[in-house]
Amino acid sequence: MAGDPKTNEPAEVDVTAADGLHLPHSALDDLKAADAVHSLRSASDDPKAADGSPAVLQEKQAGTRRFPLTSAAHILMRLFGSWFLAEAILLLSHVEPQIADKAYLSGESLRLVLWICVSFLLFTLPHLLAGRDLRLDRFLLAGATLLYGCLVCRHAADTWTAAAVALVGAFVAFFLVRSGEFTFRDEPPRALIGAAVFVFALLFALFVGAVTVNRYLSYSAPKFDFGLFVNMFHNMAKTGLPNITSERDGLLSHFAVHFSPIYYVLLPFYMLFPSPVTLQIGQAVVLAIGVIPAYRIARRAGLGRWGSGAVCLIYLLYPALSGGCMYDLHENCFLAPLVLWTFDYALRGKPIPAFVFALLTMLVKEDAPVYILLLGLWLCLEPFGKDAGARRQKRNRVLLGLFLSLFALLYFLVVTYFMNRNGEGIMAWRYREYSDSDSDSLVGVIVTVLRNPAIVLANIFQTKKLEYLVQTLLPLLFLPLITAKPARLILLFPYILINLMPSYQYQHSIYFQYSFGSFAFLLTALILGVAERTREQRTAALFAAVYASAMLFFGTTFATRSYYLDIPDVIWARCSRIEAVVSQLPEGASVRSATLLLAHVADRAEVYPLVTKNDAEYALVDLRNGFDREMKAAVNDYDYFRNRGWELVCVEPNAAALFRAPAD
What we know:
By secondary structure, the protein is mostly helical. It has helices at 15-18, 26-44, 54-61, 72-92, 109-130, 137-156, 159-178, 190-217, 223-239, 267-272, 276-288, 291-300, 304-317, 319-323, 335-347, 351-362, 369-381, 388-422, 442-451, 454-460, 463-473, 493-500, 516-531, 535-555, 557-561, 569-582, 637-643; strands spanning 3-4, 9-10, 243-244, 252-253, 591-593, 607-609, 618-622, 647-652, 656-660.
């Protein structure tokens, strides 16, 4: 296969056809493009070519024709682009614009018209000076639509508004590609795409890290679940064991609740920087790393550098990815990159790395083997080509798929047995509505689903889940649902099984950690499905998906959580007063703590919730308004301890109080 001597990369050909997947048509598109160019060049040699002939078309495409003031399409693009840009400028000039109010901008019609005229003239003048079409209108319309759409979604902070705006943005992006305004045929240098992906991944990590770190520093991260993990990592650093005292109000191993050895990957970093901040940043970095396998899968599928870069943007802008971090650190953050790495090596036919990443995926949680089992099943059933090389590849991938599925099933049975005997089970109660027994057994769930599959549809398409469906599928333009290959539907099973079937409300919310694994499957389905289209179709689909993802990101995660990026000084002042109380707690002393203060005192062997059956030397009470009723007593928590003889050590009004237990 001939390659590019400058980049040392293989040429843009149907790479997956060689191993039997028959996904992209880039090689065919290149041949068609070459024929078209040859036809244009031949026609240009004809001096009698009239208007509308290939020679004139070539001249127009090269940008050498006179600028057409009567070109309706370009004038409309410039007009709409100027309108959206003017609206964006006015939005930026308001601190908190009420865009849903009909009176918004009622007195600024003149400013709006003025900005539209200024923008229109500014983008018309370069064409007139150059005497030819510079094709700036496409950039104006694309950029203004994206900017205005993201600003509207940010200020609306509503999923349905964001969805409507995302559809408009996706339509504009689709139009620009299908009309020939954006072709993306000239592939950029690999270093440029790599640098761009790195910058966007860094911005993602900075956003997620800043939000979650400030959430902790502002005493907003609760005991469940961040305080638990701070206590666990402290004990892991001291003893090597994942022991916790605050999770079930007594000493136990966290692995009795969730079997998650993957946490040991973060332990060296925590030991170097023993702070809860390390854990919050670690989660952001782990998720950002997922762009690497996402890019590799896209390149393997033949999407090219532009398309692969677009896939990375979709990954980073996906609302449930950043949104899933908003309830602080969880082991599920490892699922997105690890599942994608497993897909990458499985598609490349490399069994050993695929098995290593499959094993790491299963170490994330007791239910993680389900992802590998389904991945292996898909490898067995995905259709391949019929040539000799494809048959060999099919045999190898079927063997790999069988091995991964059987190993995942065996691992799941062993872990389930261990947790049922020594822990608290695998939380099958989340599927209780599918079981007619009282044992919360998965066997009962399976029997019910096989006997009455309609119950699954009845639970999936509930009103409370429709918003989640829009938030998670619209950024992907619902493309993972569109396939002519029945085996490809297996990639939807994790999304259905983990997110849509349970009635447990947090599993179908983008602001909790349960979407990471299923998103990796949906993204892979998107890549494989888009790669089967023509170059123009997949370019339009990916361009539109980037727009939809961006607008839904700004309308959901960014809109609802960005206040952590600009916490008022009065809040930080109160946090300083809380810290003054917390600093009075002796190092190593046992303590019972209010939920939002526990993460700050969890670096000790014994830390319990405020309501506990265990004895503790100190009690830390949250005196902020609305957080002083954990004891559920007739009086607030402060009076509860005072009335029972606890000695007041330190108090800051409307902040926190520290009590010492009464002497025996």
